[in-house]
Amino acid sequence: MTRIKHEAGILSRYSLSGAINTVAGFATIFGLTALGYQPYVANAAGYLVGLVLGFFVSRRFVFRHEGKMSAQGARYLLAFALCFSINLLILRFALQAGIHEMLAQALSTSVYIVAMFLALRFFVFHQRAK
Fold first, then answer.
1. Of 19, 38, 64, which residue is a domain's last?
2. Torsion angle, CA of 20/23/29/35, rounded to 10 degrees?
3. Which of 21, 28, 22 is nearest to 44 (CA)?
4. CB 29 within 8 A of CB 46
5. Mutual angle of helices 39-57 and 3-34, in 10-degree steps
6. What pTM, to 2 d.p., does this model score?
7. pLDDT computed for residue 128 by the predictor
8. How many whole angstroms separate alpha carbon 2 and alpha carbon 102?
9. How do residues 13-67 score in pLDDT, each as one tens digit?
10. Do 53 and 96 belong together in one domain?
């Protein structure tokens, strides 16, 4: 398989995993809200489901990586914290620059998606040369 096809496969699986993760997160949020949980609790639970699901789907389906799960989990949490912080900084600067709220959200989310992919590809699930 050529390098380009390999990378295209990873990107395709990453996109699909993002869609699955989004559905699972929203299903959790909406389900808990319908059951009467406070919005903040439902939201936190939805994000927690997304974080955990995202790790396992990325590990097995997107990057098909074996490696040490504990080390990967620690790197995943670090990558998430960094990428989410970047997301919030971009959102803040965009809003301060007068960019419409929805466009600012779209911009910061787009940067998060790309940054998280790069972090997963080259830091969390990086294949070391043998």
1. 64
2. -110
3. 28
4. yes
5. 160
6. 0.87
7. 64
8. 39
9. 999 999 999 999 999 999 999 999 999 999 999 999 999 999 999 999 999 998 8
10. no
pLDDT of residue 130 exceeding 80: no
pLDDT digits (tens, 9 = 90+) for 90-103: 999 999 999 999 99
Answer whether 79's CB lies under 8 Å from 119's CB: yes
- Could you give phi then psi for residue 105, rounded to 5 degrees? -65, -45
| 59 shares a domain with 21 | yes
How high is the pLDDT of residue 45?
Answer: 95
Half-sphere exposure of 122 (CA within 13 A, CB side): 6
Q: How far is CA 80 from CA 9, 37, 76, 122, 130, in A?
A: 22, 26, 6, 14, 27
Write out the residue range of the structural domain in which residue 111 sits: 68-130
Tokens of 67: 């490696």
- C-alpha 5, offset from chain centre: 23
In this structure, what are the phi and psi dihedrals at residue 36, rounded to the nearest 5 degrees? Answer: 100, 5
Separation CA 61–CA 111 (nearest Å): 22
Same domain (yes/no): 102, 76: yes
